Model the fold of this input.
Amino acid sequence: MPTTARLPVALSTLLAAVGLVAALRGAPLTDTPEIHLQLGKLLYAEARYGEALAAFRTALASAEGRARVEARVGAVQAAMRIGDFAAVRDEAARLRDESRGDPEARAVYGDALWSAGLFAEAEAAFRESLAIDPEQPRGHNGLARALMARSRHDQALEHSLLAVGLEPKEAEFHHTLGNVYERLGRYDAAAGALSSFIDLLPKGIADPRAALAGAELRFLSSFGKKAPYEFISDPDRVYTLPFRLEQDKILVRGRVNGSQPLDFVVDTGAELTTISRDTGERERVAGVTYTVSAGVGEVGMRVLQLGRIEKLEVGPIKVKRVPCILKSPALRELPAPEGESLSPLAMGLSVGVDYRRRILTLARRLPDDGPADVTLPLWMNRLATVRGTVGIDHPRSFVVDTGGEVISISADTAKVLPPLVTRKIGLKVFGASGWDRDAYLLPGVDLAFADIRFRRLSVVVLNLRAPSVLLGYDLGGIVGHRFLSRYRVAIDLDRAELRLTSS
Done:
């Protein structure tokens, strides 16, 4: 399995070897599941995940016992690597039934649930793995991710360090450790963990993770020993700011490096604060390195610059060394130029929105405003997500996006619904990655978020394939202004909750 794979031999040597073994045993290659299992492992180690998936599936056709569990684990992990979320769900369901009592397989089952956006079920699987074997490294790694997504960073660090200590040669575990350190604001330690991740990736093999991790390492290292998001104003104060609402977007005024006031869209659907290329050039926000971003639109994966705002001011809030994305190179042919957006969640600030009074509340700990009408568990897995159910029984994760406008579902989510009996209504939708030419309006969708239920709702269907692959989990959809503005909203990181109260 990938957790134990070593540096691969040349596949030509492997194929010659397996052919010899098959000949010596007098068995056709197609009848030897063990050979296909080993081939799958070596293809996986060479980052040839699609071919590895095919080899594991061939092995599954006749494998039994332990070999079958190993092949199923390999198939799940290969499908996750290529972002084939439908295959992940299918293989994971079988793994669940075939691996009871196997702690590593249960942890991989948790990984599969995680990639499907079923975070609560994934956490339960990780805990089940550790109940069987308290020293199961993949179980600790998965639980670290779950705790981090619930803002339990100190506990996440404990489990992540255990995973790395138990299996120090597993690159993935070092990457998780780096993510935990980054969420804790310890960029120097995060850089060290990411460096270990890169060192452990197979050498001489085209693995896109290496290039992305290298860029992230350069960015983290640029901070040296200095912490990001250093508050000049009181970090524990509860800040209230007036906002304007234009085109279903929350706008506040802010300054970049002492600039003239600029409009910022308050965007909980973005990983980082973003600024336009023009503002970056004018206010001398230098790009440190390049990264890959993904959003709605035909561009899909988009190369942009990572930079650092030396001083960001939004009303009374003043923060030094704010990581940001520079929209450079800029997209062309958009209906309006790309502007600035503020990501309070990336700054560790919970968000309260009173749409009726036009008041925005930002704080590390939001004040207690009494019981909410509806409370949903919040998972901060790079983006803030909550659980929704599409149709009768299709659970999916939805991004909570104050910068978005409508309620949408992904094109992959739409595929699980009954066929349309009406004509699709084409839409012209522009997102962070340009024009989504395949977007359409889908009528008659049942949708539920806990006790909030919509019957026969018209939703926008978007191509969310690129952001799902980049994030590493299947995005079911997005809830924006038309959903959130019905309520007084609290996106509470400290309590890991989305609270909705009727205005």
